[in-house]
């Protein structure tokens, strides 16, 4: 499997987004806790060494499951989590970048993940009510205190990334991006130019990308599934891209991971 760098860390270029271990609303406890543990362990068996989660998934449940299933962690496993979202109800995802909220999130994440330091800590989104330099500055303080190794951002524009980089080094950006939704092409290009990893969330477009007639036609031509083609397209799009497909199914996980061995031709890539 191809690799990329997160600071001095090296990870395989197909990670696992753990959000879908929970239900579709990412709320509450999993329907089958043992099955959730098996899914997480199977991801590691298949070569995943980068797992992405967030305090807000559950909230807090997802991190707990990862700690239960995978600790003590195998050497080389990088766990990334996110802070700065409040979940007062199932349907709400409210930005909250206040320093006190970020400190609360960090301490809880360290405890649930059974870590002394988080390898990649990401600000989940910009809070329009809090100056960006205040939120990012708080994360920089966590790094200085030794509780965070590297800092990333999520749902950021190029301008916002540049502002954050003036405060602290940024090693990753996590935005929505897939073969069917490319509004953030400029962000991907910026990340590639500046040696920043780009983590596309919803890399399969909530399934919409898989229903594209072009992808279906190509899947028949090269005998790969639509999901594998969508992931292979992301891997070819830029060497900085680190897809993190998520699923609640072991079968889908195994299907997705096979995309690491699929390399689209230049012509097939351009056709999409």
Features:
272 residues; alpha/beta; TIM Barrel; seven-stranded parallel β-sheet; 10 helices; 11 strands; 38% helix
Structural commentary:
By secondary structure, the chain is α/β, with parallel strands linked by helices. It has one domain (3-271): TIM Barrel. It has helices at 33-45, 61-70, 99-113, 132-144, 158-165, 185-193, 213-222, 226-237, 250-257, 266-271, and strands at 3-6, 9-12, 16-17, 50-52, 78-83, 85-86, 94-95, 118-123, 148-154, 172-176, 197-201. The strands form three sheets. It has a seven-stranded parallel sheet with strand order 3-4-5-8-9-10-11. Strand 4, helix 2 (61-70) and strand 5 (78-83) form a beta-alpha-beta unit. The radius of gyration is 18 Å and the shape is globular. The two termini are 23 Å apart. The model has no long low-confidence stretch (mean pLDDT 96).
Q: Examine the coordinates and then state which fold CATH places here, giving the name of the CATH topology.
A: TIM Barrel
Which homologous superfamily in CATH is the superfamily? NADP-dependent oxidoreductase domain
CATH class equals Alpha Beta
Tell me roughly what share of residues is in helical segments: 25-40%
Strand % is 15-25%
Query: How many domain modules?
Result: 1
Supply the helix-strand structural class.
alpha/beta
Cross-sheet strand order for the largest sheet: 3-4-5-8-9-10-11
Give the overall shape.
globular
Seen as an oligomer or otherwise, the chain set is: single chain
- Major sheet size, sense and barrel closure: 7 strands, parallel
Number-wise, the strands total 11
Query: C-alpha Rg, in Å?
Result: 18 Å
As residue ranges, the low-confidence spans are: none
Query: Mean pLDDT score, rounded?
Result: 96
The CATH architecture comes to Alpha-Beta Barrel
Distance between the termini: 23 Å
Listing every helix as H and every strand as E from the N terminus to the C terminus, the arrangement reads: EEEHEHEEEHEHEHEHEHHHH
DSSP helical segment count: 10
């Amino acid at each position: 499997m191809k690799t990329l760098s997160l600071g001095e860390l090296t990870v395989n270029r197909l990670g696992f987004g753990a959000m879908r271990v929970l239900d579709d609303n990412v709320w509450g406890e999993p329907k089958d806790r043992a099955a959730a543990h098996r899914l997480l362990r199977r991801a590691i068996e298949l070569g995943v060494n980068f797992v992405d989660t967030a305090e807000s998934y559950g909230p807090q449940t997802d991190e707990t499951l990862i700690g239960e299933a995978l600790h003590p962690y195998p050497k080389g496993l990088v766990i990334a989590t996110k802070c700065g979202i409040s979940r007062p109800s199932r349907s709400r995802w409210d930005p909250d970048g206040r320093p006190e909220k970020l400190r609360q999130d960090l301490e809880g994440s360290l405890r649930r993940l059974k870590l002394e330091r988080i390898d990649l800590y990401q600000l989940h989104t910009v809070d329009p009510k809090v100056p960006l330099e205040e939120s990012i500055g708080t994360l920089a303080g966590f790094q200085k205190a030794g509780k965070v190794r590297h800092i990333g951002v999520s749902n950021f524009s190029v301008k916002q990334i540049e502002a954050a980089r003036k405060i602290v080094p940024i090693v990753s950006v996590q935005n929505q991006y897939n073969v069917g939704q490319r509004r953030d092409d400029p962000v991907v290009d910026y990340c590639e130019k500046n040696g920043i990893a780009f983590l596309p969330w919803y890399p399969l477009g909530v399934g919409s990308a898989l229903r594209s007639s072009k992808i279906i036609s190509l899947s028949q031509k090269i005998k790969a599934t639509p999901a594998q083609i969508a992931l292979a397209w992301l891997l070819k799009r830029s060497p900085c891209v680190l897809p993190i497909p998520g699923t609640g199914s072991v079968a889908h996980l195994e299907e997705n991971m096979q995309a690491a061995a699929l390399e689209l031709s230049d012509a097939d890539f351009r056709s999409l």
